[in-house]
């Protein structure tokens, strides 16, 4: 079963003259849904900060491991994926419904290029639900209200926030967003989060000039944060092993892949 609350005019906001995160990210992971301006900015950022392609791949692989773990080992059947990005291979619903055909997934994004491709995300299993809503992470109340049409918030939900809070520039606002969404989720729910960092021990110091260039030449603006600021998003939750680590190393095989300056963690609400 698939549903969509995507407005028919979603493509009206599409601006192909300015590099946009979803398309540049798609370019870095080898996708085809990008334009010359995205490729040009993406190449320049990659020249300044060569690790960015590794970050993009590691973040995507983290998503796969986290969804598989939650669906297989923790029995999660509901996923709220905020900041979906462009569809690629093995999206959240594909992984979850491969394990549990009755899984329910709601994707959330307000990126016009993602809206154009939303139908690709709405090809879930017959027994489950795959929904897509056009909403902004800065408006968690709207996300929760509309997600409740497809998800049962009396049962555990895995809230996926991969590479999205870095577009909320005010750290306290970002914390409020996480707190508000997790407050609506019942005990036994999970927060799955990745976030770029400038921590030198992960090789993140190169993020700063690269993000400065990005903010001057692309949209939306982005920020990296410290280990402590990212850890604070999990306040009141219980981090699962191995805790807050480079997303490349979270439950990874082999056990010690090269770290990237993007933290990742999964936590459960007591």
Secondary structure layout plus pairing:
Blueprint: E1 2-5, E2 19-20, H1 21-28, H2 36-48, H3 51-73, E3 78-82, H4 92-99, E4 104-109, H5 112-116, H6 118-121, E5 129-134, H7 140-147, E6 158-162, H8 171-184, E7 190-196, H9 207-217, E8 218-219, H10 227-231, E9 238-239, E10 245-246, E11 262-268
Helix pairs in contact: 1-2, 2-9, 3-4
Task: Provide a concise account of the structure shown.
With 270 residues, the protein is an alpha/beta fold. It contains ten helices and eleven strands. The chain starts with a strand and ends with a strand.
Characterization of this structure:
The chain has helices spanning 21-28, 36-48, 51-73, 92-99, 112-116, 118-121, 140-147, 171-184, 207-217, 227-231, and strands spanning 2-5, 19-20, 78-82, 104-109, 129-134, 158-162, 190-196, 218-219, 238-239, 245-246, 262-268. By secondary structure, the protein is an alpha/beta fold. Strands 1, 3, 4, 5, 6, 7, 9, 10 and 11 form a 9-stranded mixed beta sheet that branches. The protein has a two-stranded parallel sheet with strand order 2-8. Helix 1 crosses helix 2 (36-48). The longest helix has 23 residues, at 51-73. It is globular and about 45 Å long. The model is unreliable at 1-12 (pLDDT under 50).
Task: Indicate the mean pLDDT.
Answer: 90
Number of helices: 10
Strands, total number:
11
The residue ranges in which pLDDT falls below 50 over 5 or more consecutive positions are 1-12
Oligomer: single chain
The general outline is globular
- One letter per element, helices H and strands E, the order comes to EEHHHEHEHHEHEHEHEHEEE
Biggest beta sheet attributes: 9 strands, mixed
Q: Radius of gyration over alpha carbons?
A: 17 Å
Q: Distance between the terminal alpha carbons, to the nearest Å?
A: 31 Å
* Class from secondary-structure proportions: alpha/beta
Helix content: 25-40%
Determine the strand fraction and express it as a percent band: 15-25%
């Amino acid at each position: 079963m698939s549903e969509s609350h995507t407005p028919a005019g979603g493509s009206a906001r599409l601006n192909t003259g300015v590099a946009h995160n979803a398309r540049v990210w798609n370019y870095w992971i080898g996708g085809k849904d990008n334009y010359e301006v995205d490729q040009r900015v993406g190449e320049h950022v990659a020249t300044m900060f060569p690790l960015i392609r590794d970050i993009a791949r590691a973040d995507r692989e983290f998503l796969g491991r986290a969804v598989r773990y939650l669906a297989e080992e923790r029995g999660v059947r509901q996923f709220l994926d905020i900041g979906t990005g462009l569809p690629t291979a093995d999206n959240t619903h594909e992984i979850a419904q491969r394990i549990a055909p009755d899984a329910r997934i709601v994707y959330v994004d307000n990126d016009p290029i993602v809206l154009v491709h939303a139908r690709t995300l709405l090809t879930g299993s017959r027994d489950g639900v795959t929904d897509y809503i056009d909403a902004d992470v800065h408006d968690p109340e709207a996300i929760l209200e509309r997600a409740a049409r497809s998800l049962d918030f009396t049962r555990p939900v895995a809230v996926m926030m991969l590479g999205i809070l870095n577009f909320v520039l005010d750290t306290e606002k970002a914390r409020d967003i996480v707190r508000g969404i997790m407050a609506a989720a019942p005990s036994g729910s999970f927060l799955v989060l990745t976030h770029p960092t400038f921590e030198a021990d992960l090789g993140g110091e190169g993020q700063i000039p690269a993000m400065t260039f990005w903010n001057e030449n692309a949209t939306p603006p982005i920020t990296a944060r410290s280990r402590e600021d990212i850890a604070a998003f999990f306040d009141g939750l219980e981090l699962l092993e191995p805790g807050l680590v480079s997303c490349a190393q979270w439950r990874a095989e082999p056990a010690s892949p090269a770290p990237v300056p993007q933290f990742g963690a999964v936590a459960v609400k007591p």
